[in-house]
Design a protein that fits this description.
Blueprint: H1 3-14, H2 20-41, H3 51-63, H4 68-87, H5 114-123, H6 130-145, H7 149-153, E1 160-161, E2 166-170, E3 176-180, H8 183-200, H9 219-230, H10 241-254, H11 259-266, H12 271-292
Antiparallel strand pairs: 1-2, 2-3
Helix pairs in contact: 1-2, 6-8, 6-10, 10-12, 11-12
Length: 296
Amino acid sequence: MGSRSDQFLSYLQQEKRYSPHTLTAYENDLKQFSDYISDQYGLDNLLEVDAALLRSWFALLMSDGYSRGSINRKMSSLKSFYKYHLKNGDIVMNPMDRLRSVKKERKLPVFVHEDKLSELFDKQDFKQDFPGLRDLLMLELLYTTGIRLSELLNLRHADVDTGGNTIRVTGKRDKQRMIPLLEHVKQTYLRYCMEKEKHFGAEVSGEVLVTGKGKKPYPGFVYRRVIFYLRKVTTRSKKSPHVLRHSFATHMLDHGADLNAIKEILGHASLAATQVYTHNTIEKIKSIYKQAHPKA
């Protein structure tokens, strides 16, 4: 691989104090690129390459099936390598400056199918006592409003307007938004409030949801309850409060809801964050098409 690489790796070890694991990753990236330019171009000096040659290597990695995250790490390794030698005066320009990182694949949101959630709410037996109504309200709020876990935990009785059928949610950067409260969810809320007062008295915490000891619930508490109920209706490996938020947005889109309206309900800062849900809808359309079209 050559003294240029050894010099750079020594710098990372002695001056930057990088861990052995990180040093190995840098070394492997440099060796892999060094092998490429040697095999393909007969070059043995990493400082003699240009942006076009680097671009050809990254294109090869992509065609070979390397993940975008892995490619970006290799790009970062080489950028640091050439930046070091530019600073030392060994080269007059960094050939990596003209290259941009590869955009990472955006993972599609995981959601539970509508019929499975209908089974959860319509067929599961939620006891009409405090724990049962609390769990039902927790699940209904997550699925029918799309609120985040942190927003659910901080929801207070003062935020619930039963007359106007709305809840006031405080989201990221303390930005507030109003979300419609469905009539059947309001009825669950009212029954829950009665059981909560019977269970703890009128002086209990102002937060809507509380634990069996009357305290504000913590994230792990909600996670466990959500996972417990989702296990009853789905075999999906990923089960979490956020999956119910994803399910809300996906099902709203499936039923023709306006994307901008969903954006406002979810509290997204930009429409781009909401548009990821359209991919799930498109995949559903493709699946229906393949099943239904005679030529598919």
